[in-house]
Write a structure and sequence with these properties.
By secondary structure, the protein is mainly alpha-helical. The chain is built from seven helices and no strands. The longest helix has 74 residues, at 168-241.
Length: 296
């Protein structure tokens, strides 16, 4: 029966290195115990919190916002101010595009309000999940340090072994030990990869929260008031155009139109960035979960 693993590996404190290096078989038994007793609780927790975080922070309206923003962009681009200047004008198409943009604006406001409510309700919970993931990952990384050292010592021992010529049994034993070490090494590499994916997911989750909050603020505090100002300018223009003494002044409406388009493009870019980060976060969490399960 192999000796028990050094207590330092289990309490997290260094202890003097034994004068005599342990053989590979003993070190592999220690490493297997470490993976079973110390690593498993951390991987179980990381897997549980990662799944919960993925469910909590999943797309909360970015896709619908993107559609509504592009509908508004299409409606604004369909506006032809020259129609208003024509003596025998038929403003039907112009009014249709304007009304379509108004419907999109209301939808954008509704969805942005839903996302704002989600942030107020769940932001703190998501941040707690991020903190828990980081703490568990740091603890797992500390435990894996011992496993990495033992794995290096295992391969040092195996490389120094030289079965005698014709010692088929010794050669087969060495091959068996090498295969076992390969398996343990693959598990260790998988755990390190999962840890890196968890760390990346924490960063991405923070980015997603920040981008969601910034986008909601931009939509509610900038785009919505801008659209309202543009809409008022368009209404005044259309009302004036129905009068016989109209001076054909479309400048104020076009000025508001230009500002609306600039704000709209900025919001669409912000929404696209949010969707990219959300997709990257989901991929990262899926990768982390797959690697954690594979290394268990």
């Amino acid at each position: 029966m192999p000796p028990d693993p050094p207590s330092a590996a289990f309490v997290g404190f260094p202890e003097p290195v034994p004068a005599q290096r342990q053989p590979a078989g003993v070190l592999m038994s220690w490493l297997e115990q470490l993976l079973q007793k110390l690593v498993a609780p951390h991987t179980d927790c990381l897997l549980r919190v990662s799944v919960d975080l993925g469910a909590r922070i999943y797309d909360r309206g970015a896709g619908k916002l993107s559609d509504a923003l592009r509908q508004m962009d299409t409606a604004v681009n369909d506006l032809d101010y020259d129609i208003v200047l024509q003596p025998d004008r038929d403003p039907g198409a112009f009014r249709g595009a304007w009304q379509s943009s108004a419907r999109s604006a209301r939808r954008i406001g509704d969805i942005a309000g839903e996302v704002a409510t989600w942030l107020d309700t769940h932001d703190a919970g998501v941040r707690r999940g991020i903190v828990e993931l980081r703490m568990e990952q740091l603890q797992l990384r500390d435990v894996l340090v011992h496993g990495d050292e033992w794995l290096a010592d295992i391969w040092t021992d195996l490389r120094q072994r030289r079965p005698g010529e014709g010692d088929q049994a010794g050669l087969e034993k060495l091959r068996g030990l090498a295969a076992r070490a390969d398996t343990l090494g693959a598990r260790m590499r998988g755990l390190h990869s999962a840890g890196r994916a968890v760390e990346e997911a924490c960063v991405l989750a923070e980015h997603v929260l920040a981008l969601r909050r910034a986008l909601v603020q931009e939509l509610l505090d900038v785009l919505q008031p801008r659209h309202a100002s543009w809409e008022k300018a368009v209404v005044r223009m259309l009302e004036a155009a129905d009068k016989a003494d109209w001076a054909a002044d479309i400048g104020p409406a076009q000025d508001q139109d230009a500002q609306l388009r600039a704000d709209l493009q900025r919001c669409m870019a912000g929404c696209d960035k949010l969707r990219q980060e959300e997709n990257a976060l989901q991929r990262c969490l899926v990768t982390a979960c797959e690697q954690l399960r594979a290394a268990a």
